[in-house]
Amino acid sequence: MAIVLILFGLPAALYGAAWLGAWRAARTGAVPAYAGGAPGPDAPAEAPARWLLPAAILLHGLSLAWPWDRGGFHFGFAKALSATLWVGLALLWIEGRRTSLDAMRLVVLPLAFVTLLLPLLWPGRVFETGAQAPLFLPHLLAGTLAYGVLLLAALHALLMLWVQRDLHRPVRDAEQGPIERWVGRLPPLMVLERLLFRFIAIGFVLLLITTGSGMLFSEEVFGRPFVLEHKTVFSLVSVAFFAVLLAGRAIRGWRGRIATRFTLGGFAVLLLAYVGTRFVLEVMLGRY
Question: Taking the model in full, what pTM does it have?
Answer without folding.
Answer: 0.71
